[in-house]
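Quick illustration for those who missed Monday's session on complexes.
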Amino acid sequence: MKILVTGGAGYIGSHTCVELIKDGWDVVVVDNLSNSSSEALQRVEAITGRTIEFHQADIRDKAALSKIFKTRSEMHHHVEPKNEEQNNTGNCSIDAVIHFAGLKAVGESVEMPLEYYSNNITGTLALLEVMREYGVKNLVFSSSATVYGDPHALPIKEDFPLSVTNPYGRTKLMIEEILKDLHVSDPSWNISILRYFNPVGAHKSGKIGEDPLGIPNNLLPYIAQVAVGRLPFLNVFGNDYNTVDGTGVRDFIHVSDLASGHTKALPKLFTNPGVVTYNLGTGRGHSVMELVRAFEKACGREIPFKIVPRRAGDIAACYADPSKAQKELDWKATRTVEKMCQDTWNWQSNNPTGFNKIHTG
Ligand code: NAD
Ligand code: UFG
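Prediction with nicotinamide-adenine-dinucleotide bound:
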């Protein structure tokens, strides 16, 4: 079975490629490398001992996407796909798409809303149109816990009310709605919407990990760069929340656990479930200061920090009820916060400047 992974060179995408290959899926990656390096895919090949078919293209480029679907159909059937949907249907050897490609920084989305709507919404529409053209109607979509806004209760269940406060979050919520409309119009689509909580950590090999451009926005990569001396200290955004120690609480999930959530979501798609939505989290909240202490243990160094005012738009606490994914996908996160910090440190200390490649795009 062949899986097209959009955004497969990125942080979560590269880790998911490892798990997919491990579980025996064939992987094709499309990525424009706007926030990643092709070196990540070479490292995935080194980890798995398998070659990955990679296409450097923008998902908004329908001609380029078509080529990827068409190439595969020609390789297997030696027929020229026609323009009509029914003539392409069945001629394509891609069985499902896992769709990671998009922009993801909340603050940047406020500054550059058009880029976010274009990459995320227009990009997804282009992908869906080409999938429809080739009769590929199985999709796993990367959504986010950000669609729950400031939750009225904890832990968060999938049927909680949805609300968003920034362009990035709106793209995720809009895409969820688009996917539901698509399924209403054609029930032969099968779509798994995965709402990620806070992905952290790195593959245990230390060969791949999160490699943000510039100064990191997110907590763990920031702490990791303080630990290797690239940044002088951590800013802790507020210690006056109504939480265990006053700092923000999040559901940090190891990226390899998150990745295996995707390999579990795939077989479910082939049981014709329609549109299904799952939280991917551990079900446990940890505070910012708990993460700082766990990271200090993992790296054996002190992490200097300063308490600064709250960051605009942050909520006090957020963690998942992951029981639906456990029940329906037989998936559960198993790695501890200690392991998340150890693996982040292993990646960061072995690769102090990340993939050390000039980012393109
Ligand atoms: P990432 O930036 O590392 O990966 C995204 C990949 O998509 C990158 O390799 C980038 O080059 C590529 N890309 C972006 N726009 C593209 C386009 N128009 N055409 C082709 N490729 C394009 O981010 P990630 O952390 O791996 O996130 C993957 C997905 O998960 C995103 O959709 C993100 O919104 C979602 N998500 C991430 C988090 C998180 O905290 N990391 C949380 C919730 C949801
Ligand atoms: N934090 C700091 N200092 C920093 C960075 C973060 O104190 O330098 C704190 C934040 O205030 C928050 C916690 O660490 O309390 C986690 O912050 P992150 O930026 O790492 O993560 P968020 O929970 O804000 O957001 C992340 C992704 C979003 C996604 C959301 C889903 O960045 O894209 O998880 O839950 F939508």
